[in-house]
Design brief:
The strands form 4 sheets. A 5-stranded antiparallel sheet has the order 8-7-13-9-10, with helices on one face. The longest helix has about 35 residues. The protein folds into 2 domains: about 220 residues, no CATH class; about 100 residues, 2-Layer Sandwich (TolA/TonB C-terminal domain). It is elongated. A hairpin with a 5-residue loop joins strand 4 and strand 5. The protein has 12 helices and 13 strands. It has about 400 residues and is an alpha+beta fold.
């Protein structure tokens, strides 16, 4: 159910991004950022938002599962997350290596460009400029103390190229793209099995670069000049492999043609977007996520009030002197949110076909627990009792625990 809810949030966001193709890239990037964060928080939101939904009549045995299968699923998820995290870890290792080999830039001309562009972009945080000791792509990282890395051959660049490159990286700083991209990378590592999360992460990175392209072009840079720099830097990318980096860079491989075409299209809307529009998008995505997180379907088997909790229950059956323990998982509805838990004692008759009948509660309990326990008993199936090899009907007693 969590995967389904996450899929709905991401699908809505991706469809909205397609519908907003004529809107500024900054607006699309903000929408994707909020959606990825909200989709990642769905498992936690389920514990706090009010539950709502409808009743679902499920076939007998639909809730029965084997504990070993659940443990195997957890193990596969953990292993997958570890493997998916390797690229993220490799990016940080590479970034650390670049930082250790770099030296702080002391060029007065570079500092003047950083100071002037920071003022135009409204950046008040101090930005540190580094010069790489090895070939590297221009990139930026850091949130509170952002840093920009320029390649070793930047000293041979023209003033116009320096202004374009530094302006693009400062636009990432102004927008906080490093932190947002890092959140997306972590979310993708956790949801490694989710194709929509990978698609959203890739689109987020593209819209981030597009938004920074727009920011530089609004500073007075000509579209054809900027497009030319994108192509030249992309050629360097083929040798320097900055796609392994977890930080924003000027010209990553992939979708470069679309960025060049956008830079040359003077009719595109490049406005950064208003605070009111950003707040409206935020509230809309959060509202949709909260609604989806609270959705649940009540499994009604044998009666409309049989709401089953989303917790594992141990059912002890006593037939003669022998005990059986069956692990049952009831999905979709959880009593956790209402802090309801307890134990329900039931009496019933195990028929010759392995089904239970004449189910009734032995001791008074919370009515929701009683109806849920009765529903579980009615849908439960097991091998019938045998008398000289012949199935017979026998009385049974069940203890249903609703615990965390």
């Amino acid at each position: 159910m969590i995967v389904l809810k996450t899929s709905i949030v991401l699908a809505i966001a991706l469809v909205a991004v397609l519908a907003m193709r004529k809107r500024p890239a900054a607006a699309r990037h903000w929408l994707l950022s909020v959606a990825i964060v909200c989709a990642s928080l769905v498992p936690m939101l389920e514990l706090f938002v009010p539950a709502w939904g409808f009743e679902l009549f499920a076939p007998a045995g639909v809730y029965q599962t084997v504990a070993s299968e659940r443990n195997l699923a957890r193990l596969v998820w953990i292993c997958g997350t570890a493997v998916a995290s390797t690229s993220l870890i490799a990016g940080f290792v590479r970034l650390l290596g670049l930082r250790l080999r770099a030296r702080r830039a002391v060029d007065a001309g570079w500092s003047a460009i950083v100071r002037d562009l920071s003022g135009e972009l409204g950046i008040t945080r101090p930005v540190t400029l580094f010069e790489s000791g090895t070939p590297a792509m221009p990139m930026t990282w850091g949130l509170w103390r952002p840093k920009i890395l320029l390649p070793a051959d930047a000293r041979t660049w023209s003033a116009e190229r320096l202004r374009i490159v530094i302006g693009h990286e400062l636009a990432h700083v102004q927008r906080g793209d490093w932190a947002l991209q890092l959140v997306a990378e972590i979310a993708t590592a956790v949801y490694w099995f989710h194709p929509l999360m990978w698609i959203a992460r890739r689109r987020l990175r593209f819209e981030s670069d597009r938004a920074c392209d727009d920011a530089v072009l609004t500073l007075g840079v000509k579209g054809e000049d900027y497009a030319g720099e994108l192509v030249r830097v992309a050629r360097e990318l083929r040798r320097r492999r900055s796609e392994w980096s977890v930080v924003p860079a000027l010209a990553r491989a992939g979708q470069l043609e679309r960025r060049v075409a956008a830079a040359l299209n003077a009719r595109l809307d490049r406005a950064p977007g208003s605070a009111a529009a950003s707040a409206a998008v935020f509230l809309a995505i959060v509202g949709v996520t909260l609604s989806i997180a609270g959705f649940t379907s009540a499994a009604a088997i044998g009666g409309p009030s049989a709401a089953l909790p989303d917790v594992q229950r141990n059912i002890m059956t006593r037939l003669g002197a022998q005990d059986w323990r069956v692990s049952i998982v009831a999905r979709d509805v959880s009593f956790w949110k209402n802090r309801i838990e307890g134990r329900v004692e039931l009496q019933a008759r195990l028929g010759a076909d392995g089904s239970l009948s004449a189910v009734h509660v032995v001791e008074p309990v919370h009515p929701d627990l009683a109806s849920a326990a009765a529903a579980i008993a009615r849908q439960w199936r097991r091998e019938p009792a045998l008398l000289r090899g012949v199935p017979v009907e026998v009385p049974v007693r069940l203890t249903v625990d609703f615990t965390r």
